[in-house]
Design goal:
There is one protein chain. By secondary structure, the chain is an alpha+beta fold. The chain folds into two domains: 2-66, no CATH class; 69-213, 60s Ribosomal Protein L30, Chain: A (2-Layer Sandwich), CATH 3.30.1330.60. It is 51% helix and 16% strand. Strands 1, 2, 3, 4, 5 and 6 form a six-stranded mixed beta sheet that branches.
Length: 215
């Protein structure tokens, strides 16, 4: 255990002092990876012999992901989106890893079994697209969800089609499609019970994440 701590600590120190040729983003990513490796190795060693190496690899990956920043621009866009979505049911928040998150319920996003964007969602996406054009260092991830009604053969492609429709709407308003990732998760990640109509309505949603890269 002591050996792991010494090695991990040394790695973090070397990364933080020996990265003169790296950009700020690369340096922070490398340091995050080293710190993550240290934490992962410690946890792995506590879990039993042979797990320290695996923990270090996983920890390095997690540490390297922590590269989003919450800038004044991000705070400004959050406030603008909160104003634009007031009274619509859309939730706007800052995530733990400094991403701006829009949680868009089904009553303003998509009709049942449809993937075309409803008129009530368009002004919100218009405002969001404005912010994206003004912040070229940001990335976007759009995730579509459904309730449990129907089979995976229906829900999985439908959730992806909804995410793709949202992406296409943004690209039509000048946002580069290369900045946008889309996913469809079907009914696999409910946030409410599918046993009630209200719960199913909450589960039919689109989540949009925006993160500003460092550098």
């Amino acid at each position: 255990m002591r050996k792991i701590l010494l090695v991990g600590t040394a790695a973090v120190v070397l990364l933080s002092t020996g990265c003169a040729d790296m950009s700020d983003t690369q340096r922070r990513t490398a340091i995050g990876a080293g710190a993550g490796a240290l934490g992962g190795a410690v946890i792995g060693s506590m879990a039993g012999s042979g797990n320290a190496g695996k923990g270090a690899v996983i920890g390095a990956g997690v540490g390297a992901l922590g590269t989003y920043i919450w800038s004044q621009h991000m705070e400004k866009q959050k406030q603008e989106m909160q104003a634009a979505t007031q009274g619509t049911g859309v939730t706007v928040s800052q995530t733990a890893d400094n991403q701006l998150k829009l949680d868009i319920p089904s009553d303003i996003s998509f009709a049942t079994n449809r993937a075309d964007i409803q008129p009530s969602l368009r002004p919100i996406l218009d405002r969001f697209a404005d912010g994206l054009r003004n912040n070229p260092n940001s990335d976007v991830r759009i995730i579509g969800h459904t309730d449990s009604t129907g089979s995976d053969a229906i829900n999985n492609p439908l959730s992806l089609e909804r995410a793709e429709s949202t992406r296409n709407y943004l690209t039509e308003r000048g946002v580069s499609g290369a900045r946008i990732q889309v996913e469809g998760r079907g009914s696999r990640e409910p946030i409410a019970s599918n046993d009630t109509a209200d719960g199913r309505a909450r589960n039919r949603r689109v989540e949009i994440f925006m993160g500003q890269r460092q550098g």
